[in-house]
Amino acid sequence: MTGRGERGERTRGTRWSLIVPVKHLARAKSRLARATGPRRAELALAIACDTVAAVLECPTVERVLVVTDDPRAGAALEGLGALVVAGEPGTGLNPALEHGESAAGPLAPGTGLCALSADLPALRPAELATVLRAAQRYGRSFLPDSPGVGTTLLAATAGSCLLPAFEGASRARHLRSGARELRVAGAGSVRRDVDTPQDLWDARELGLGPRTRRLLAELEGPGHDSARVPS
Length: 231
Ligand SMILES: Nc1nc2c(ncn2[C@@H]2O[C@H](COP(=O)(O)OP(=O)(O)OP(=O)(O)O)[C@@H](O)[C@H]2O)c(=O)[nH]1
Ligand SMILES: C=C(OP(=O)(O)O)C(=O)O
Known about the structure:
- The chain has one domain: Spore Coat Polysaccharide Biosynthesis Protein SpsA, Chain A, CATH 3.90.550.10.
- The chain has 9 helices and 7 strands; from the N terminus they run βααβαβαβαββαβααα.
- It has helices at 33-36, 40-56, 71-80, 93-107, 125-135, 170-176, 188-191, 197-206, 210-219, and strands at residues 16-21, 61-67, 83-85, 112-116, 140-144, 151-156, 180-181.
- Bound molecules: guanosine-5'-triphosphate and phosphoenolpyruvate.
- The site of phosphoenolpyruvate (PEP) has 10 residues, from loops.
- Residues 21-23, 28-31, 67-68, 88, 92-93, 96, 117-119, 195 line the site of guanosine-5'-triphosphate (GTP).
């Protein structure tokens, strides 16, 4: 594991270690392939960087561990201040999160652990702080994505394990597993993951982070009409 150490700020309440999984860029954001053409990997990286930059600005976040085997993503996210956890099992998202949880545990005894999707390009630090404040009341809790089918955030306070069950209809799976569903007003940017061109459009309405915004502007420039969202 490489990267910068703990953040300095102190606030009251639970402190959190965030675990952010980032898929190999060559395979990431496949549902945006038609809209982005050859710049799909670049867009996936811009989205991940905007997500992690916002997480690092959240006052109750102590550290951010990015689980990735992608060297380009790892270098960029480490440059922002995340710790990079490589060597994931290679068997998908949930094993990658468990790998991150194993790395975070000894680093962060007594803090909460929180898995957060890396595809939240409109993420606002204050909204994440609101969700984490709600999560500190439960052993295990989660936040559904905007459509209410999947999950964008799964949290475990000290003494509990994440037991991640992401992918597909994970809201129902997390509920069945006994995790508490967080119902938090003003958390739209934490729920707005981006899988399709329409999602990207909706995230833009919320306000995109600077890297994603810049790349979309380039994609929509002259000669890039196929990149317009939604397509
Ligand atoms: N480290 C790691 N992260 C993953 C893996 N699979 C998915 N992720 C991450 O999990 C989150 C949700 O991913 P998905 O929506 O399933 O995949 P995606 O690449 O974002 O989009 P699609 O290719 O369209 O499915 C994103 O942060 C991904 O980068 C994996 O095998 N390893
Ligand atoms: C990984 C998930 O969803 P998506 O593939 O829609 O990002 C999920 O919601 O568990």
